[in-house]
Amino acid sequence: MSEPTPHDGATPDTVTYDVVVLGAGAVGENAADRAGRLGLSVAVVEHELVGGECSYWACMPSKALLRPGAVLAAARAVPGAAELVQGTLDPAAVLARRDVFTSHWDDHGQVEWLDSAGIALLRGTARFTGPKELLVSGEGGDTRLIARHAVVVATGSEAVVPPVAGLAEAQPWTSREATAVEDVPARLAILGGGVVGVEMAVAYRDLGAEVTLLVRGDRLLTAAEPFAAEEVAAGLRDLGVDLRFGTSATAVRRDADGVHLTVTGPQGDGQVDADEVLVATGRRPRTADLGLDVLGLDAGGALEVDDALQVTGVADGWLFAVGDVTGRTATTHQGKYDARVVGDVVAARFSGEDAAEQAAAERDAGEWTRYRATADHAAVPQVVFSRPEVAWVGRTEQEARDAGLQVRAVQYAIGSVAGASVAADGYAGTAQVVLDEDRGVIVGATFTGPDAAELLQAATVAVVGEVPLDRLWHAVPAYPTVSEVWLRLLETAGL
């Protein structure tokens, strides 16, 4: 491995690595690991916990909060087990288990992994001072950091607090506070009907809170199929969530009695009282403090990249970006996929002539190569761990039509499949595939229902592999499993 060295003629506070990765979250870790596999020296810069948002404030703690309620609902749907289930969740036990998944917000284990992988860690905040040059400011002072070959920006995103009068002063929660809570509030108001808003509405109802979900538009989960959004809305109401569409907060104030939101909606103006308010109205790339202006880039905006994750508009091809910061992906799993792509591109391009030639050859070989993030365009998987769960991949029916494809949507009630009836009494869910009629392949799929996420990988393989329907017909699902819905979908499609 190429060793880090002091920069020629510089002070001892200057250090050089072949590759520098900004951000040590799950995405940055993957990019750093792949970039160093052919011998390049790699350093990551992180000012918070190594492991990032997913490990401590998003994916892992949120799913740890959601899983107990899903298990309880599953047990109650099976006679013989249902009779043994009494009472509600134990919030203290749920939070204690959540703490295990976050390692009690201690990144010691993640730091050990970096050490074992030969990746250097610089604690602090980084700011560009020129091409391939950064100033890292930490508790121990400043360090001048030079990248011989490449810099990868993987700084993620941050929650946006909308400019509602009094909201910022009311000290609202974002997803961080919601997933790291120590005491469950009796009343929670949530602004926003996206993934965070929906999932936290479920989690806090399970934990015993009264939840009011305020949605400015007329539906939830705008990226999902409309039928899936409707099923989730019905599920939230069944859980006892006060779900209000077309409703906005116009003012917020906090006093000794809690948080008070002035709202306007179909029924006119009113007030929602809560103990805490969670803002889940969107996120923005975390780029404002990176000094991108010295590179001629927009400070605070997303970094536009090509399919090799190289930032466009920067000369000499040394700057890359990956994950939320690009505006292309908004999930950890897709960000990690992009990180594997960018890591392989950087390793091949800069670790030697033979590797660079190999990378160039593979990039030119076809659309589906590990040196391109092809899946970002039409094969992105997404799961919302609501009740019912929603899982989808590829294009929705409307997105496919907007792309000029001649498509047909085929639906089937999952509860009609034998395996679903075994899994749960009254199993309710829907499967839909979007068929490209010209090519005879699936370009999108959506599933709703208990554990719908487990159906998603087969759909992802079908979409990415562009498996012809007449070939997919021979992929026989086991009986009796929920996956038998694939057979029913193909039969409904006319095969």
What attributes characterize this protein structure?
globular; 7-stranded mixed β-sheet; 495 residues; Enolase-like, domain 1; alpha/beta; single chain; FAD/NAD(P)-binding domain
Describe the structure in your own words.
It contains 16 helices and 21 strands. The protein is of the alpha/beta class and 495 residues long. It folds into three domains: 14-51 and 107-158 and 284-376, 3-Layer(bba) Sandwich (FAD/NAD(P)-binding domain), CATH 3.50.50; 168-281, FAD/NAD(P)-binding domain, CATH 3.50.50; 388-492, 2-Layer Sandwich (Enolase-like, domain 1), CATH 3.30.390.30. The strands form five sheets. Strands 1, 2, 3, 4, 5, 6 and 16 form a seven-stranded mixed β-sheet that branches. Helix 8 links the parallel strand 9 (210-215) and strand 10 (242-245). Helix 1 packs parallel to helix 9 (332-350). It is globular and about 65 Å long.
